[in-house]
User: Fold this.
Amino acid sequence: MPEIKLVDVAMIYPFQKVSGIFNRKQQELILQQQKKMPYTSNEGVIALQHFNATISDGEFVAVLGPSGSGKSTLLRVIAGLERPVAGDLYFDDRDYKFVPAAERDCAMVFQNFSLYPNQTVYKNISFPLEVKHVPREEIQPEVRKIAELLNLDTKLDRMPQDLSGGEKQRVAIARALIKKPAVLLLDEPFSNLDPLMRARLRTQLKELHQVYKTTFIYVTHDQYDALSLADRIIILKDGILQMDDTTANVYNYPVNRFCAEFVGSPAMNFFEDIPVSKTGTITILGHNYQLSKAQMKKIRKDDTVDVGIRGYDIAISNNGYPAKVEYTEVIESDLVIHVIADEKKLTVVEKAADGDSLKYFRDQDIHLNIDTDRLHVFDQDGSRL
Assistant:
């Protein structure tokens, strides 16, 4: 299986051409929207900019970012469905920039299933082996094996229209994996599924990765999918690589404010434009935090900083900084308390127990204490200090 290396890759999509009589208004609207994109050139919209990454053999990598960040474009470049306008793509030491998609040992799973409606589940799964003229006696055990792994062994005689959305997606994954590709590319495969089915498929996908040892590249805008599935996360914004690190580091040590805000649920609390004293001290909710010498060197005189802290790192106690409760939510095993301190809205997270939803009530006076070791400090450019 290959190591995938992308070197200074750039991708530009041409502007929408406005011509003819029919659909002209729609064409003009698309063009206007394209020209409002954050990064454009004379040629069109820049979807990827100077992208560099190396994906090791057998890794499970999540590509995370908001809509329009270049995630699917990156996947299509790796698959060979798009050719970058600049940069290089290597599978091991071989230049794959001009290798057709059909000659790359990749399989792709889309969010819309793309099953053959007139074929049974068995025929849908076996199709990649049949087109390679694998003997029938070899195909059957392979289909049975992967069907059992994905709990599809009782559905093999059914037609796609008789399946649920989750079952259809499992068939699509089985069809992609049965030919044992070197790389499995997944383009938001769970986006059309309900939360319960997403949770089940996450578990099955992780198990499949352990069984097949294939390189998985999983594109999503859902940070929960990325955090629960991947060994490593690549974060994109406007086609620019923001962070490429382990799941733990992405969550605990975001390199900039965008990554800090985008990863984690509920979203990180932020205190903006906090003044820094001459000795390098900042004060958050009555708690002092001393900037290190390295942090002080990165900021200019009279600069302010933005400070973030996750709700898990704020505690409600009998003593501390005064605040009032707005309302509470029970989300899975977490109790999320929405509070106001100094007219600023914050979220505090505690582990929920039976009856905890009644523990805090509207306008209740409480006190907050923060773990100053868990503060995230950013300069005015959004970079981590």
Notes: The chain has a mean pLDDT of 92. Residues 268-378 form a domain with the OB fold (Dihydrolipoamide Acetyltransferase, E2P) fold (CATH 2.40.50.140). Residues 129 and 179 are 6 Å apart (CA to CA).
